[in-house]
Amino acid sequence: MLDKIKYSLKHLTVGRVIIYIFLTLGAIVMFFPFYWMITGAFKTYFEVTAFPPVWWPSSFNLDNFVTAFNMAPFMTYFKNSVIAMVGSVGLCTFTTILASFAFSKLKFPGQHIIFGLLLGLMMVPFEMIIITNYRTIIDIKIYNTIFALIIPFTSSIFYTYILKGFFDSIPDSLYQAARVDGCSNWKYLWRIMVPIARPSLVTIILLNAIASWNSFMWPMLAVVDKDLRTLPFGLYAFVSEGGAETQLMMAASTIIVVPMIILFLFARKQIVNGVARGGLKG
Amino acid sequence: MSTKTAGKKKSLSLGKTVEPYLYLAPFAIGVILFTLYPIVNVVLLSFKEGYNFITKDFASWGIGNYLYVLKDAYFLQAYKNTFMYVFIVIPISTCLAVVIATLLNQKIKFSGMFQTAYFLPMVTSTIAIGFAWRFMFNYKSGVINYLLSFFGIEAINWLQVPQYNFPALCIYGIWAILPFTIILLLSGLQNIDPMYYTAAKVDGAGPIKSFFRITLPLLAPTIFLVVCVNTISTFKVYNELFPLFQGAGIANNLFTVVYYIYYQFRVKSPARYGYAAAAAVLLFITIFIFTMIQRWVEGKTKN
Amino acid sequence: MKITIDHLTKDFGSTIAVNDFSAVIESGELIALLGPSGCGKSTMLNMISGILPSSTGKIFFDEDDVTDVTPEKRGVGLVFQNYALYPHMTVLENIAFPLEIKKVKKEEREAKAKEMAKLVHVDMLLDRKPKQLSGGQQQRVAIARALIKNPRVLLLDEPLSNLDARLRIEMREEIRRIQQETQVTTIFVTHDQEEAMSISDHIVLMKDGFLQQVARPQELYDEPANCFVADFLGNPPINKTYGVVQNGAIVLDGGCVVELDAAKNLKEGHKVILSMRAESIVIDEGIKNAEGTVVETYVMGKEVLAYVSLGDYKVRAYIPAEKSFGKGQKVTVGLKKRGVFVFDAETGERLA
User: pLDDT tens digits for C115-159?
Assistant: First the structure.
């Protein structure tokens, strides 16, 4: 009997070790491109072209970053990315909060039909309507302005759907209690609902911000002026137009990726939960 | 007095009916202008033959755009590529993700560190990290060819020789899709009641047996969902092509459906909006069919 | 403040939740709105608060017709079953919230909130969040929040049902104390007869949307208006037997003859229900209304619960502990005046 326990204990630890080895190998493979990109940003031209590859840069200096910044206006790209992100995420969060509240707590004719229609529209990929949206921004004269990167993204059916789901879970008695006290819908929404829904709001803001920061296709179509480009588009143009050397390409890529890595390190739980929730629902 | 109350009641009910729509209005403007209207418009556009983007004139209504697109070698290639991509990337990534998610779901130390490593690709720009992959895929100084040399494999020109473009895209694709897949499966695993494992242990089932007899069957609905969601998102593959190949492969051999839309109204000169619109509608129909199949299977298994 | 409810009806499409309800609630009283679940008592409360509009009928607060007045203008304080405290606000902020909406100055509303907190004995918990409070404390906070704006009427929806048994007794006495200190007209909904009996001035008993009876607790117990009222109140439940009036007596199913003065005035052949409270039945004490057989006895400590068969029925009776009866023993059964009722078998109306 005792032998049996000893055996299973030993077996367990061997199993554990195998789990850790496997997970570590997998983690190395998954993380490697990041390692390669960031170290690449500090390597010299000779180091990035060497074979066999150089695993660690000989010195950490910002030469590549300085060169890249001199070759292309990355500060401007960075600024545009931030403006587009803050503008679209801010406005979208606002419309999402209002619409989710209306669908969740208010009653109006056509409510269920409208919501059903929206769920149907959620199936439509943005890629399908990109041509006609391109037409629209030209018609409303925001083509090739910073507004072209903001206005089309002020409403999101997906985030409204997610937030409505959370609002639904807040008991109606809270709403009635506030109404009996004379609280207006507007005040109730901002004083009670929004503070309670803060975790969910943070999640949708994070997911929206990540999507906005990384978006590539739309900015490439919606603006032509060099000083209106956002980071991913600016980076791509930097490489494809200028034929930038690898170490400069890595330096510029690092600028785009690092803010998101930092964000992820701080808000991993919210992001992961948000993706899981959104993915399972959608 | 009575008229006063009546008037009050009327204004009250008016306020009640109008207010919800005021809350909806900002949202609705965006949805109507940038989702609903463009859908109608793209469908109309797909039936306009000889559409002129500047003047908005067109020659006639008809199905000419569809006839052209369905015969276009690039468009057919896009579907062929997409299906091949689905058949390679989805099974491999799903199997890997099931194993990794199962291991991550054990009580392990450093789970925060592991999660960070596995999930990080999800939040990073496809373009930026794509350039890192381009660096790694380099023919002469790439780290991938260096590692392969240990297995006696000669250097592969991943990016410049057309036949190797597709494998390179698949490798990058699997890496990129894994985080999302793992997260969904992990949350599926966390929804399995640990009671089942306790019961299996009491019945003498080892870890391998309980994986195949409990984990997999109970995880099956989530696996199915992930496969469907990933298949649909695969039809929209597009961004990945730019950092690796600056387009649809080195010799226009890697068309995807979305790239085809982009090609028709951005790369080609003069731009053919009608063709792009027809391709967009066909893309939607494809996604719609997959969604319906998914709902149908889910509905069946639930009953 | 007096509340007058005049022919009030609420229908939700096909189902009628409250049906032609009329009652007057006197100023300063504590009223229990009692009934089994689904009887329309919460609907009734929501109509008084104004959360639900009524279909027809009118509600008056004193002389004001408030039927079409919105909840916030009625001046009602409402306490919910789940307390409905705002989870992100402290106790102080929760209590002060109704005044915050009225745009009362911060110092003023906080002073008032502290006063209220003192009234309900949560003045040591002002900085806590609702999650950090016990159920009873949350209940107290909810009451303070409802009272802070000096409502004309305080409404409580099943205020004690989320509490455990011991706290429930403590809190119902607290509600009584607070009500007497503030003298606010109070209506509380409950399905628990003991709760209603123990603290209310008047009980309003409802069933299936209909008002059954309005009376003081003891009166409701002693003089039920109909068979449902008699059935609903009392523990153990009242003994309910069916029979027919014959020769001035009631013959129960199974042939047992019950001699009863009250039956003498009833029509021959009338189908009736004879209901007897357990404590109104005496055995072998010189009074004889019927003959029965002891079926089973249970020693309860201070008394014995005996099951006695009367015709087809087994009735419960309390007998003094010092007496003992064997199983199957024939006994004479006596009925006291109090706690014995005759109802019409078809309508359930009280006959005697």
Answer: 999 999 999 999 999 999 998 899 999 999 999 989 999 999 988
Q: Tell me which residues of chain C, numbers 153 to 192, contact chain A at a CB-CB cutoff of 8 Å.
A: none
Q: Nearest CA to CA, how far is C194 from chain A (Å)?
A: 26
State the smallest CA–CA distance between residue C150 and chain A in angstroms.
11
Residue B14: predicted pLDDT: 44
Residue B144 touches chain A, beta carbons under 8 Å: no
* CB crowding B60-72: b at 16 or more within 10 Å, else e: eeeebbbebbeeb
Chain C partners within 8 Å of A181 (Cβ): 72, 97-98, 101, 149
Q: Using CB atoms within 10 A of its CB, is residue C286 exposed (0-12), middle (13-18) or buried (19+)? A: exposed
State the nearest Cα–Cα gap between A255 and chain C, in angstroms: 38
**pLDDT at A264 (0 to 100):** 93
Lowest mean pLDDT among A3-17, B208-222, C79-93: A3-17
Query: A217 contacts in B (CB within 8 Å)?
Result: 238-239, 262
CATH class of the domain comprising A72-243: mainly alpha
| C70: chain B residues, CB-CB within 8 Å | 12
For residue A17, give the H/E element and its range. helix A2-40
Task: Test C84 with A173 for CB contact under 8 angstroms.
Answer: yes
Q: How far is CA B274 from CA A243, B72, B255, B267, C42, in A?
A: 34, 14, 18, 14, 62
Picking from B17, B36, B125, the nearest residue to A256 by CB comes out as: B125
Whether residue C252 sits in one domain with residue C106 = no
Average pLDDT on A23-52 reads: 92
Considering only CB atoms, which chain A residues are within 8 Å of C77? 180
Domains annotated for chain B, with CATH where assigned, are 14-61 (no CATH), 65-302 (1.10.3720.10)
CB–CB contact A256 B128 (8 Å): yes
| Helices A246-281, A198-214: crossing angle, 10 deg rounding | 140
- Same-domain check for residues C174 and C244: no
- H helix or E strand, kind and range, residue B61: strand B60-61
Q: pLDDT at residue A48 above 60?
A: yes
Q: What are the pLDDT digits (tens) for A184-198?
A: 899 999 999 999 999
pTM to 2 decimal places: 0.85
The 10s digit of each residue's pLDDT in C15-49 is 889 999 999 999 999 999 999 988 889 899 999 99
Within 8 A by CB and 6+ apart from C277, the residues are C234, C238, C239, C339, C340
Q: From the CA of A162, how many Å to the nearest CA of chain B?
A: 14
The residue range of the domain holding C30 is: 3-232
Task: Provide the mean pLDDT of chain B.
Answer: 87
Residue C258: CATH number of its domain: 2.40.50.140
Q: Which residue in A52, A99, A121 is closest to B146 by CB distance?
A: A52
